[in-house]
């Protein structure tokens, strides 16, 4: 039930929030572990807290790869359309995963990597560029996003044991929703809106880092329920502050 319901509902909330409040808020929402947290919970229930705790380092490295995706897509979008930008961004994501999987990722190392990546990518992403466009969103894209959410979570959790904790963690943050929403924002609202989306997406990844730091440290001793409760409280507080500063200083997001 978690596989088939939780992630699709979360992505539906993000999509509707983006339609109501714009690309900054949609990007900020994507910084939450919308697919990674359900995958981590299912892995903990299926394979035990120790396995899920071991995968937390991979999940951190995977989100760092998502930030690389945002950077490459953002720069490519200044000159090319959504198709070239999406291919370039995905190629960068998988290249980053390949490199990180060569490392024996520990939780402290992965935590340091993602925080450094967030800072570097946020500073490198263009603050301005391209154009804004206003287009009515098609009604059929929301059911498609929800379907893809369920399929992806089901596949990753199903193959988790075969992939092992590190690689399953690295693959879990694959930006399937970020990719879909980025393409729609880029195509329908322009590259400037896409850049705004990416800057908030990357900034909210700092909260993601603390979420899985708590998961990695807490699962072996605190158990599943309390660990994820504490991690959720931490990311809500941290990302709440992030959204406050993003909205307080709109010039910083394009």
Task: Please tag this protein with its features.
single chain, 254 residues, mainly alpha, 81% helix, globular, disordered C terminus
Structural class: mainly alpha
Mean pLDDT: 82
Number of helices: 13
Radius of gyration: 17 Å
Helix content: over 70%
Provide structural commentary:
By secondary structure, the protein is mostly helical. The chain has one domain. It is about 80% helix and about 0% strand. It has 13 helices and no strands. The chain has helices spanning about 1-20, 25-30, 35-45, 50-75, 80-100, 105-125, 140-160, 160-165, 165-170, 175-190, 190-205, 205-220, 225-250. The chain starts with a helix and ends in a 6-residue tail after the last helix. Residues about 250-254 have low confidence and may be disordered.
Which helices and strands, and how do they pair?
Blueprint: H1 2-21, H2 23-30, H3 36-47, H4 49-77, H5 82-101, H6 107-124, H7 141-158, H8 160-163, H9 165-171, H10 176-189, H11 191-203, H12 205-222, H13 224-248
Helix pairs in contact: 1-2, 1-7, 2-10, 2-11, 3-4, 3-7, 4-5, 4-6, 4-9, 4-11, 4-12, 6-12, 10-11, 12-13
């Amino acid at each position: 039930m978690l596989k088939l319901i939780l992630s699709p509902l979360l992505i539906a909330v993000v999509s509707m929030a983006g339609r109501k409040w714009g690309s900054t808020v949609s990007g900020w929402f994507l910084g939450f572990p919308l697919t990674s947290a359900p995958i981590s919970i299912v892995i903990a229930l299926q394979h035990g807290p120790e396995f899920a705790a071991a995968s937390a380092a991979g999940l951190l490295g995977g989100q760092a790869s998502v930030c690389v995706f945002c950077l490459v897509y953002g720069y490519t979008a200044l000159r090319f359309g959504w198709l070239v930008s999406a291919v370039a961004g995905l190629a960068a994501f998988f290249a980053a995963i390949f490199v990180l999987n060569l490392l024996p990722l520990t939780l402290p190392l992965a935590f340091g990597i993602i925080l450094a990546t967030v800072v570097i990518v946020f500073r490198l992403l263009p603050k301005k560029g391209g154009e804004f466009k206003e287009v009515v969103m098609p009604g059929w894209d929301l059911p498609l996003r929800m379907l893809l959410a369920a399929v992806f979570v089901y596949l990753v959790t199903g193959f988790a044991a075969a992939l092992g904790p590190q690689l399953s963690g690295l693959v879990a943050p694959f930006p399937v929703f970020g990719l879909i929403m980025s393409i729609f924002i880029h195509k329908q609202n322009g590259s400037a809106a896409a850049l705004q989306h990416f800057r908030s997406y990357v900034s909210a990844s700092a909260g993601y880092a603390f979420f899985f730091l708590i998961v990695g440290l807490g699962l072996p001793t605190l158990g599943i329920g309390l660990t994820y409760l504490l991690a959720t409280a931490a990311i809500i507080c941290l990302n709440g502050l992030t959204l406050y500063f993003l909205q307080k200083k709109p010039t910083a997001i394009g």
